[in-house]
Structure formats: C-alpha cells, structure tokens
C-alpha cells in the first residue's frame, strides 16, 4: 500500500527498475522492477533463510547480505515468495518519501485510519500489552532482532485494527479506487507448487496449489462442500507468532487470526468457518 500511495503522489511507478533507487545496484538486478518485488517474481533469493535473526542490521546491511547472490530464476519467469523483495521495497519507500519506513506508515496509513494499536515493533522497551511469542506450548520463541524482518514483518497490530484496515480496503474507503483495485487484481498466477506461471484463466479452482497474487494478497478459491468460493488472503509467520487475514468477497465475511504460537495451524479454523458460515453463490 505504501508503494501505491507513493505512486499516487507521482514519486515512483511500479514499472520502474529498482536500480533507479539503489546505489551500486548489481548488474543482475538491472531488469528487475518494483512490480517484480511486489509480486515475488524478481528471482532474488530470500534473505531470512540465511541472515542471523539475532544480529541487528540496517536496511543497507540487509540488502548487502543478498545483493551479490545469484538469482534463483530470471526475473518474471517464476513465482517464489521472497522477503528480500520487501526489504528492498522498504528501502525504496524511505528514499522516495524522505522518511523512515516506520514514520511513513505511521503518518500515511495508521494515523489516517486511526489504527491506534498498530505500529512498527521494537526490541526494547517492551510495549505495554505486547503478547509473548511461543515456539511451542510453554516454550518461548527464539529471540529475533526487530531490525532483521524490517519491511518484511516488523509490524504489530490487533484483530480490531486489522478489521478496520480490511474494511477500509474492501469498501474502497482508503487511497484511490484504482490503487486498491490494483492490489486485488491478479498480477501473476502460479499453477503448481513449483511457482510455474500461467494465465489467471488457466487456474482452475480444483487444481492444487493454483492461485493468483495481487499486491500483497493471494487471490483464489476454496472448496466449501462441493462448490468453490472466491477468497482473498495472506498468512504470516515469524518467531513466536502466526497470523491470517482472510476475506470472502462474495459473502463479505472476514476472518482474522492472530496467534502467539508459531506452530499454530489456522487451517482448522478456516475449515470450520467455511463449513458453518460460508454459503456458495450458486
């Protein structure tokens, strides 16, 4: 959303090459665009699988940790979730806006929507009412320095605030209608569990691991009994926590799950909701 807001202000375009905003940009990144980062089709390897989570880092240090690594695939040829894209996007937001990532989100989104219990997390002091994360029951999660997830996952929130955020987006009451429409438009579609790209029209509901991706949202269909219903969703996970933000547009039903147990399986909840509350439109 931050990128789309900056696009509305004329400060960037999603089609821009990312090297316009990165000093010393690697040669292998020359054809990568902001669009590629937003849709996880850049081929840049995911830094969170190798970067020490306990080691504090600046955005520049995070990017330096993976900028010399070979691409996993040629830009635009496959889909593979990569937190590295979000780290670069956070850096671009800071450069273009002239503010820190956290400050931009605060003034451009959180304050505007009155999300008083949402913000950029910190290591210390501990926030009042902040949940303690667990790896498994009674076992606290491993420590992670909040500078490491950065723009890929350092935000905290509540169910109430996330619902307010969802309503603003789904009811087109925030940002321009065009920007929000872009978020929920299939930008790329993966038709198997290997990230192979295909046309959205080729993504049959019954195909396993077949879904489209907008900007920050998965777009697909879930089975409800026999028929399938449209769904828009995104899961999240970090040391000690798991989350899910799910919306059924035809039924206008929202499901938000926040858990302070990283091994929490939200599939059982979605199955229960779909069985008892979702009626297919036939």
Q: Which SSEs are present, and which pair or pack?
A:
Elements: H1 2-8, H2 34-38, H3 59-64, H4 83-97, H5 101-110, E1 119-120, E2 134-136, E3 139-140, E4 155-156, H6 159-170, H7 177-183, E5 188-190, E6 211-213, E7 218-223, E8 228-238, E9 241-248, E10 253-259, H8 267-276
Antiparallel strand pairs: 1-4, 2-3, 5-6, 6-7, 7-8, 8-9, 9-10
Keywords summarizing the entry:
six-stranded antiparallel beta sheet; 8 helices; Beta-lactamase; alpha+beta
What does this structure look like?
26% of the residues lie in helices and 17% in strands. By secondary structure, the protein is α+β, with helices and mostly antiparallel strands. The chain has 2 domains: 163 residues, DD-peptidase/beta-lactamase superfamily (Beta-lactamase, 3-Layer(aba) Sandwich); 91 residues, no CATH class. A 6-stranded antiparallel β-sheet has the order 5-6-7-8-9-10, sandwiched between helices. Strand 7 and strand 8 form a beta hairpin. The radius of gyration is 19 Å and the shape is globular. The two termini are 33 Å apart. The relative contact order is 0.12. The model has no long low-confidence stretch (mean pLDDT 92).
Strand order of the largest sheet: 5-6-7-8-9-10
CATH level 4 superfamily of the largest domain: DD-peptidase/beta-lactamase superfamily
Q: What is the CATH architecture term of the largest domain?
A: 3-Layer(aba) Sandwich
User: Could you spell the SSE succession in H and E letters?
Assistant: HHHHHEEEEHHEEEEEEH
Q: Would you tell me the structural class of the helices and strands?
A: alpha+beta
Q: Tell me, what is the CATH class of the largest domain?
A: Alpha Beta
Q: Let me know the average pLDDT.
A: 92
Largest sheet features = 6 strands, antiparallel
Number of separate structural domains: 2
Rg over CA atoms? 19 Å
Count of DSSP H/I helices: 8
Q: Helical residue percent?
A: 25-40%
Q: What portion of the residues fall into strands of 2 or more residues?
A: 15-25%
Question: What is the global morphology?
Answer: globular
Low-confidence stretches are none
Number of strands: 10
Distance between the termini: 33 Å
Query: What name is given to the CATH topology of the largest domain?
Result: Beta-lactamase
């Amino acid at each position: 959303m931050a990128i789309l807001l900056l696009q509305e202000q004329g400060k960037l375009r999603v089609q821009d090459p990312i090297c316009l905003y990165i000093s010393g940009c690697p040669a292998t990144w020359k054809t990568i665009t902001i669009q590629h980062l937003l849709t996880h089709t850049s081929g840049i390897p995911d830094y969170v699988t190798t970067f020490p989570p306990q080691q504090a880092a600046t955005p520049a240090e995070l990017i330096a940790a993976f900028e010399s690594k070979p691409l996993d695939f040629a830009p635009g040829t496959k889909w593979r979730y990569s937190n590295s894209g979000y780290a670069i996007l956070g850096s671009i937001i800071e450069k273009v806006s002239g503010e820190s990532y956290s400050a931009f989100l605060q003034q451009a989104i959180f304050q505007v929507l009155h999300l008083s219990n949402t913000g950029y997390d910190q290591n210390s002091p501990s926030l009042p009412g902040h949940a303690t994360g667990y790896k498994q029951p009674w076992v606290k999660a491993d420590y992670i320095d909040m500078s490491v997830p950065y723009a890929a996952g350092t935000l905290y929130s509540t169910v109430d605030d996330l619902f307010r955020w969802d309503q603003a987006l789904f009811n087109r009451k925030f940002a321009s209608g065009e920007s929000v429409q872009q978020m929920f438009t299939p930008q790329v579609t993966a038709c198997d569990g290997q990230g192979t790209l295909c046309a959205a029209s080729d993504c049959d509901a019954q195909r396993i691991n077949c879904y489209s991706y907008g900007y920050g949202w998965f777009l697909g269909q879930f089975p409800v009994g026999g028929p399938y219903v449209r769904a828009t969703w995104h899961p999240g996970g970090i040391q000690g926590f798991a989350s899910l933000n799910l919306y059924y547009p035809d039924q206008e039903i929202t499901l938000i799950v926040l858990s302070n147990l990283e091994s929490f399986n939200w599939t059982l909840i979605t199955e229960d909701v779909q069985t008892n509350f979702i009626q297919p439109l036939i």
